[in-house]
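Action item from last meeting closed. Structure (309 res):
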């Protein structure tokens, strides 16, 4: 069992999905695997019997550890839950994808990932692109989804996140310099690079800035993101829009959104919450698009309560 260097409370593992090696982090499952428990662990054992939580990161230079570092530790250690967080193909430690990088592709990857791990029921938590993938699986295979959490989610409206500028960036030659132009740069330059994704770049921890800078310096940083935008974004809308199907969702659903998100407007989650039967909406103040890292304590509190209801 190999511990993750980026998330010490998690194990680093691989599984084959559609002939591609997919990397994922798992936490809160050590005792379950060993079969050892005593009276002091009885509460943890009961928690482990509940459906696991699957965390789904977004695009950009994201990966499982970058978005979910604090959430994994909190959910596994504080809430006693089994947690899985995968790197999408083309991100983190996973292999490159085979085919067009669309939401439909990632919906298929997630469905096969759950089958490969023999998870017949799980709570899906997705941010941005990951939210759209979670939403897609919830619609096509609702039996798999015990609860659904959409964080600043893509796929809620036929509009380009970030507006026409995102479409133009995706279709600009050599746009994959998104990452390399900041590689090895100063902390201030890195804060500038993520300024569009957070509300207060100056308030980011030095630890988070260093983690982002390391991802920006990787070979091919941002290329998967640009490929996704080219497939999904159009001059007059987007390829993936689930807004007319939200009423089909039957599982408990939480929409969580940074109140100052400049990429995916909070209004998108507000309208979606009205369309989803029984959905709950939470806006987090002084927060942009990257909620789990910009406001981790508040995010974890809300998420933990919802998943334990």
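Sequence:
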């Amino acid at each position: 069992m190999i511990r993750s260097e980026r998330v010490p409370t998690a194990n680093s593992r691989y599984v084959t999905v559609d002939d591609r090696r997919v990397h994922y982090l798992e936490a809160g499952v050590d005792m379950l695997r060993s079969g050892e428990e005593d009276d002091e662990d009885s509460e943890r054992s009961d928690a482990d019997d509940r459906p696991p939580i699957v965390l789904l990161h977004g695009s950009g230079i994201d990966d499982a550890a970058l978005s979910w570092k604090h959430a994994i530790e909190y959910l596994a250690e504080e809430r006693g839950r089994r947690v899985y967080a995968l790197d999408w193909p083309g991100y983190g430690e996973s292999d490159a994808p085979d085919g067009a990088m669309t939401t439909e592709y990632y919906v298929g990857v997630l469905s096969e990932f759950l089958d490969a791990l023999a998870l017949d029921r799980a709570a899906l938590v997705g941010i941005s692109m990951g939210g759209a993938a979670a939403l897609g699986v919830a619609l096509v295979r609702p039996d798999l989804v015990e609860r659904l959490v959409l964080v600043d989610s893509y796929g809620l409206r036929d509009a380009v996140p970030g507006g026409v500028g995102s479409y133009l960036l995706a279709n600009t030659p050599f746009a994959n310099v998104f990452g390399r132009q900041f590689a090895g740069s100063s902390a201030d330059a890195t804060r500038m690079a993520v300024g569009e994704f957070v509300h207060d770049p100056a308030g980011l921890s030095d630890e988070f800035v260093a983690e982002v800078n390391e991802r920006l310096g990787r070979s091919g940083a941002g290329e998967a993101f640009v490929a996704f935008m080219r497939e999904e974004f159009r001059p007059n809308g987007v390829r993936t829009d689930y807004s007319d199907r939200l009423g089909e969702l039957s599982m408990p659903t939480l929409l969580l959104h940074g109140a100052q998100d400049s990429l995916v407007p909070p209004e998108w989650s507000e309208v979606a919450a009205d369309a989803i039967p029984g959905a709950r909406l939470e806006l987090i103040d002084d927060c942009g698009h990257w909620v789990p890292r910009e406001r981790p304590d508040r995010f974890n509190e809300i998420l933990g309560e919802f998943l334990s209801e």
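Note appended to the action item: Residues 31-47, 174-183 have pLDDT under 50 and may be disordered.
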